[in-house]
Design goal:
five-stranded mixed beta sheet
């Protein structure tokens, strides 16, 4: 599978945008109870240290908010991190019914890094990150707005990276055995720091899911990789 970030993303969205991909193979939905416990502990930590009114001003979230506003997008657009934080601060749990999802949510809450995943067996062809021209269909009645950062395979839009709409066709489930996890970063989250988060993700996935993980990075100086 080829993974690409289009030049237009660096030119119009942010020159230092980077994504780290983890190809996760032979996933076993084991240690579910332990993974749920990780998320629940982090939920309690978030409720002690964050407040709903200050989320958008957090130094790791505000760059994504600024990127939204640069394209004329308003407050109802949220990053995946904002959305999950708001749920937790409303005293709702974000625990899922599969270990992969719980590990991702634990790391999103711990580091405030946007993460997403696709079931590799449902992806068609290569994956490209691009800027929407406007009108790209995501459902029968909805389309992408011009300027949205999104990603797609050869057949369909897989997701948007600001309001974090996710195509249900490739969403991971307890039955997923192969997944492509991606972590997105903007300054002040530098690539070396993003790599540290990815390394922890790799360790947790290998330990909790009994899996093997391959890690690659895509950025302005290396905009296309094979995985």
């Amino acid at each position: 599978m080829k993974l690409t970030i289009s030049k237009e993303v660096f030119n119009t969205f942010h020159p230092d945008f980077a994504v780290i991909f983890l190809r996760v193979n032979n996933i076993h939905n084991q240690h579910l109870r332990e993974s749920r416990h990780l998320v629940q502990e982090m939920e309690e930590e978030i409720r002690r240290t964050h407040h709903p009114d200050t989320i958008k001003n957090h130094y790791l979230i505000s760059p994504w908010v600024a990127a939204q506003q640069a394209f004329g997008q308003v407050s109802h657009y949220q990053t995946s991190v904002e959305r999950i934080l708001q749920q937790v601060l409303r005293k709702k749990t974000v625990v899922t019914n599969h270990t992969l999802g719980n590990i991702m949510r634990y790391l999103m809450l711990k580091y405030l890094v946007p993460m997403s995943a696709d079931d590799c067996q449902k992806v068609r062809g290569n994956i490209t990150f691009a800027i929407a021209k406007g009108g790209e269909k995501i459902s029968f009645s909805h389309s992408l707005v011009r300027g949205a950062l999104y990603y797609h395979d050869s057949k369909r839009v897989l997701g948007t990276k600001l309001d974090h709409w996710k195509n249900p066709v490739t969403r991971t489930t307890p039955h997923t055995t192969q997944a492509l996890v991606h972590l997105g970063g903007l300054p002040p989250l530098t690539l070396p720091k993003l790599l540290l988060v990815a390394e922890e993700a790799q360790q947790l996935l290998e330990t909790f899911c009994g899996t093997t993980v391959k890690k690659v990075q895509v950025h302005r100086r290396k905009a296309t990789v094979m995985i």
